[in-house]
Design a protein that fits this description.
There is one protein chain. The protein has 254 residues and is mainly alpha-helical. The chain has 3 domains: 61 residues, no CATH class; 97 residues, no CATH class; 61 residues, no CATH class. Helices cover 55% and strands 9% of the residues. The radius of gyration is 33 Å and the shape is elongated.
């Protein structure tokens, strides 16, 4: 008896072909599946048929796998092409040159832009203008300092808050201390603080405090929902039941 131990398929078959009119016991290791034991006691011609059949099986499996991978590639390609307008990279948010003496004008234009593009269905334009507004506001904060009501009016302060609220979570987290300070100084409202705080908690996967954030058509998870209206009142927010009516959501504290 000639024994061939756990060899690749082609090598096993080649070695088996050299042995005539004898019993061959070999193990096939194929696609890391359970070893298949085969015992052959045939003339060489019969063994050649076995080799051909096994080779055909191997080729068929490879063709099936190739077809599956090709189909997946085509499906992904078609999906990306059909949704190409939703995938927009506008670059990193950089500090740019700004004229600090013109921050009133800059922030006024930013406010108009922020509100206008949110009424538009042009996703690419939204991404580009948001990016530009973020660079302007962040550059003002970095180069001129956080604006105050002594320098600008309330609408322009609101522009700063809106742009940071609509930024990504890293930007919100970085500049949130500036928002907190502005709220303490009376330059921004407690309501604005509450909305950004809830948004940041949602970014981190934590329960929100004031119940301002909606996700997938539902109220995002809320900390101590039975006392949420007490917290909302402290921040100058309406009862959560009235707030959720704007989204056709019924409040359930349980």
């Amino acid at each position: 008896m000639t024994e061939i131990k756990k060899l690749p398929l082609t090598r096993v078959l080649c070695q088996a072909a050299e042995v005539q009119n004898s019993t061959i016991v070999f193990q096939l290791s194929f696609f890391n599946q359970t070893n298949i034991c085969a015992s052959i006691s045939r003339p060489n011609a019969k063994l050649q048929n076995v080799m051909c059949n096994l080779n055909k099986i191997e080729m068929k499996i490879k063709k099936v796998l190739f077809s599956i991978l090709t189909a997946l590639f085509l499906i992904i390609s078609i999906f990306l092409y059909m949704n190409r307008d939703k995938f927009v990279y506008v670059g990193s948010v950089d500090i740019i040159e700004v004229d600090c003496s013109k921050k009133v004008q800059i922030l006024s234009e930013v406010l108009v832009s922020d509100q206008r593009i949110r009424r538009s269905n042009d996703f690419i334009k939204l991404a580009k203008e948001d990016h530009r507004n973020q660079e302007l506001v962040i550059s003002i904060i970095e180069k001129c300092g956080m604006p105050t009501l002594k320098e600008v009016d309330q609408k322009q302060m609101d522009a700063v808050w809106l742009v940071l609220q609509h930024s990504d979570k890293e930007i919100r987290k970085k500049y949130f201390p500036q928002i907190e300070k502005a709220v303490k100084n009376g330059d921004l409202s407690k309501q604005q603080y509450a909305l950004m705080k809830d948004r940041m908690l949602m970014d981190e996967g934590k329960p929100q405090i004031y119940g301002s954030q909606i996700k997938n058509g539902k109220l995002y998870k809320l900390e101590n929902p039975e006392t949420v209206n007490e917290r909302r009142k402290e921040m100058g927010l309406e009862p959560i039941e009235d707030y959720l009516k704007n989204f056709n959501i019924q409040f359930n504290p349980n």
